[in-house]
Queue: 2 jobs
Job 1
Amino acid sequence: GAVVSQHPSWVICKSGTSVKIECRSLDFQATTMFWYRQFPKQSLMLMATSNEGSKATYEQGVEKDKFLINHASLTLSTLTVTSAHPEDSSFYICSATYGTGVNQPQHFGDGTRLSIL
Amino acid sequence: RKEVEQDPGPFNVPEGATVAFNCTYSNSASQSFFWYRQDCRKEPKLLMSVYSSGNEDGRFTAQLNRASQYISLLIRDSKLSDSATYLCVVRGSSASKIIFGSGTRLSIRP
């Protein structure tokens, strides 16, 4: 079945550091990937839609200069949290849809737990 | 009004019980519907898609009511391992419009 791999699974770093998270579709090509953030005991919040070969589409309230998204190939999207601060600590999850049909479900990566000290 | 609404719970039921959740959506043009489960500190995992005619997968039954704009999930003979948060997901006509409900917490007690 469709598999999405996310790396790293856990990051702890100092305030001011930039952190890159990778999302790969392992056995299929994904023209569109999605990045979510989830705070404890809260729902998933869509941050942005990553489109291969073009700019990402950010949701309202998400700073594009803060959260840089690059979808350089059909199997890889990266999210870079620039100059991370403690309030950026969260669970970041990517997903991809196998195929283009609207009935296709999303498949999620394992998530990245980011802790900024 | 939220685009997708779920009862947050928690639902606390004994093992073996039948439990049902509903999820309402506001956009009548929504095209596809899914139930996911999310365990604590883990990523969501697809439980089942929801088809117009209703569908069943083992102990799980999903139904869609387009007229009233809700989907439901029924779990029969609940197991301890069913304890999780169940997320309702609604997808619009475009690939980018995917809305998650806030989730319903289910706790199965022995």
Note: The CA atoms of residues 14 and 81 of chain A lie 13 Å apart.
Job 2
Amino acid sequence: GAVVSQHPSWVICKSGTSVKIECRSLDFQATTMFWYRQFPKQSLMLMATSNEGSKATYEQGVEKDKFLINHASLTLSTLTVTSAHPEDSSFYICSAPGGGPGTEAFFGQGTRLTVV
Amino acid sequence: GEDVEQSLFLSVREGDSSVINCTYTDSSSTYLYWYKQEPGAGLQLLTYIFSNMDMKQDQRLTVLLNKKDKHLSLRIADTQTGDSAIYFCAESIGDYKLSFGAGTTVTVRA
């Protein structure tokens, strides 16, 4: 089946620094990818839709200057958390659309971000 | 807006059946999904059901859908220790986007 790979799996950074998370579709092309965020004991919340060749679409309440999204190619989307703060610590997961019934989305393995 | 709700915790004895319940609000959802998340890992699609079905069975998994009540359930037969995880109910909300519930943490005890 289709594979979405996310890198890194975990990262620890200092407050004020920026962190880049990559999401790759390994054996298929994805013109659209989605970024979700998950707080402990809570559900995944859709942050934004990444569009290849155009600007990302952000969900209400998500700061686009804080969470920079770049969809540089048909197989790669990146999420950069700029000037990270401890409250940005979370689990970030990307997904790419599937191709038919029951394959609504293929998910990456997620990135655990801890800001200290 | 979309709102998916599910109970947060379930404890079950090994070998028994587990039943996880979920309610959703978007009656236009075409598909409903169950995902499994093991600690520190991403989401694994377990099964899905098309909105015009009321039941789907896949090995140890049985999904029941009551569209009138917008109620979805997942039954795991003969629950094993490897089934311990968080289970997310999700509905499709268009354009390949999903709306998730908060997840049910299933703990299997010996």
Note: The interface with chain A takes residues 4, 8, 31, 33, 35, 40-45, 48, 50, 88, 92, 95-103 of chain B (CB under 8 Å).
